Amino acid sequence: NAGVTQTPKFRILKIGQSMTLQCTQDMNHNYMYWYRQDPGMGLKLIYYSVGAGITDKGEVPNGYNVSRSTTEDFPLRLELAAPSQTSVYFCASYRGEYSNQPQHFGDGTRLSIL
Amino acid sequence: AQSVTQPDIHITVSEGASLELRCNYSYGATPYLFWYVQSPGQGLQLLLKYFSGDTLVQGIKGFEAEFKRSQSSFNLRKPSVHWSDAAEYFCAVGGNRGSTLGRLYFGRGTQLTVWP
């Protein structure tokens, strides 16, 4: 049972490059989330999705895009990488309504923009 | 609006001493509450959670936390700290209704250092 899988684990980008952070879950969870973690700031929500085809902005969406074409996958896209996007990115999933189970987190993607 | 405050950025304790990490939250109803731990370069590990019922919850690694509605607090405790407990600890509030359902709101974290 893999849970939430994020790829890649590490990546270095140059300013202006683009890339997609992959996230997939095998628990058939409806809800999925992308967070970023910066030192001393905790985790901030970037985007979330409550089901295939439905996405919405979180607290810090600028500079990112997402899509949710399947229940399993929730990729995060950086179109024009900027140094301010250097961070650790976590994907999470949640079963949804009436569930008292916590979110399941991936192991994170450590991204540096130089 | 939902928010979480962890007043202590950094705490240092001696091995074997007791520990209490503070967490205060703001939420419009009875929240779901969580404590996570993160070791350097690692992901988040869930220590314990509160959804309802008994306000004293037990978690992994000998940790416990108490939900106090009157104080909007969910402090984490451990009676005797081990050197391996050195890590960063995050308190989080989970949305349990409407548009906040499933969302987590994190505090800024408390870094724990353990002296031998």
Describe the structure.
- The complex is a heterodimer of chains A (114) and B (116).
- Chain A is built from no helices and 11 strands.
- Chain A has 114 residues and is mostly beta strands.
- In chain A, a hairpin with a 2-residue loop joins strand 5 and strand 6 (54-57).
- The model of chain A has no long low-confidence stretch (mean pLDDT 92).
- Chain B has 116 residues and is mainly beta.
- In chain B, 34% of the residues are buried.
- The model of chain B has no long low-confidence stretch (mean pLDDT 92).
- The interface between A and B is medium-sized, with 24 and 21 residues.
Distance between the termini of chain B: 41 Å
In percent, how helical is the residue content of chain A?
under 10%
Instruction: Give start-end ranges of low-pLDDT stretches of chain B.
Output: none
> Rough shape of chain B?
globular
**Tally of individual helices of chain A:** 0
Q: How far apart are the first and last residues' alpha carbons of chain A, in Å?
A: 36 Å
What is the arithmetic mean of pLDDT of chain B? 92
Quaternary state reads heterodimer
Structural class of chain B: mainly beta
Instruction: Report strand % of chain B.
Output: over 45%
Largest interface: A-B, 24 and 21 residues
List strands and helices in order, with pairings:
The complex is a heterodimer of chains A (114) and B (116).
Chain A: E1 4-7, E2 10-13, E3 19-25, E4 31-37, E5 43-51, E6 54-57, E7 64-66, E8 76-78, E9 87-94, E10 104-105, E11 109-113
Chain B: E1 3-5, E2 10-14, E3 19-21, E4 24-26, E5 32-38, E6 45-50, E7 56-58, E8 64-68, E9 73-78, E10 87-94, E11 104-106, E12 110-115
Descriptive labels:
heterodimer; A: mainly beta; seven-stranded mixed sheet; B: 116 residues; mainly beta; six-stranded mixed sheet; four-stranded antiparallel sheet
